[in-house]
Amino acid sequence: MPHSCLTFLFFVLLGVPIQPVSAQSSGVDYPHPVRYLALSLESKPVRMAYMDVKPSRPNGKTVVLLHGKNFNGYYWKTVIQWLTTKGYRAIVPDQIGWGKSSHPDIHYSFHRLAANTKQLLDTLGIPKVTVLAHSMGGMLGTRFALMYPETVEKLVLENPIGLEDYKTFVPYQTIEQQFQKEKSATPESYRQYQKSYYPVWKPAYDDLVRVQASDLKSPDFNAIAWTNALTYLMIYEQPVCYEFERLNPPTLLIIGQADRTVVGKNLLSKDDQAKHGVYPALGKQTVKKMKAGKLVELEGVGHIPHIQEPERFLNALSDFLNEA
User: Fold this and answer.
1) Matching PANTHER family, A to Z (predicted)?
2) Considering only CA atoms, which of 116, 25, 135 is closest in space to residue 69?
């Protein structure tokens, strides 16, 4: 093997910041240095991108932040800053299939993503964490807490999807159908979808559209679109809503009351759309299933509280983190 390849491999294994090989999230500058963990999934070598942000005055605790389906680690930047000023170490992965991580053609499952995240924490020597998970990350965070209860001290679910079983009411789409939909995406289609996240759209929200749309410029876009289709089916086929009663750690549900997100909503009639994704009701139903659940309801807030109303979101997070 050439010396340059050995050096590259050595840096990857150490998690030294390097430039990504492929063009995922090209043109997007993350708020902190991006490192890479080498993994082998289904005999394919892949890289998991992550930020590891350490506080100047550590309190000895770590928070791992899990992103949603249409996002990556970039959108946690305000929360990272807040956490580190409070003394928390922030671990912010791009899950395999997202952002600056590899986009392999594999079987995607929340179990696999949870195992990848655990391997990252083990590599970094972090035995205990609080998990902060948004949207699809809420499904992953739930699975992670179920698989590794000894690792999770507390769990925070911010407007998680998967509070209902989509496959029981959303018509099935084949992988080929979903792939064609993903391939036809444009910056404007992303913008229109993201508008559903907020009661009132503001120009500042275009930044997250820009980040999502950066993949459209990638020479690997077909692979990214295929991965997007595979992970849509992961959400559709792998519900977690039947297992909330098995969660052991204290769990905070932060629910923006104006959220009406449904995965596959465009496949439903108007009448069926109105019956599902009703987060005020879903939040109340879900917290009742939990052994140690707490619900914070944010009036007038949509799908992404930490972007729309960061102060209210962080106040709720702070109260929960400070609880004994």
Assistant:
1) HYDROLASE, PUTATIVE (AFU_ORTHOLOGUE AFUA_2G14860)-RELATED, MONOACYLGLYCEROL LIPASE
2) 135
